[in-house]
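Entry for the shared binder. Reason: the reviewer on the internal report wants the predicted structure included alongside the sequence.
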Amino acid sequence: MSENEKGFKPSKDAGVENPQPGDVKIVDGIKYQYKKSKYSLRQFYSHETPEMGPGPGWDVRMGLLNDEWAMKNFGRTFSAKEVFNPSLLPDLPMYEWSMVDD
């Protein structure tokens, strides 16, 4: 399965190289688990979707045009057409580090 089929894998900000779903890390005594977020790639970077409303990534979607970052995190690059019309983005799952309640 390619990186693109697995979905978004933020390796740069996560602090763990190539995290996998279920991975756990402890930062400042707080436990986090890497898991699927409630957004798909399309929903995260869209201004409005019927399923989720406005996505939190709308204001930072221009970062998708950074080919090096996109290849590292998504396994592909994105066109300006996709970035300016997020409905053309793939509906891949996104992953995030979420605090774990002990």
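Summary line for the report: The chain has one domain: 3-99.
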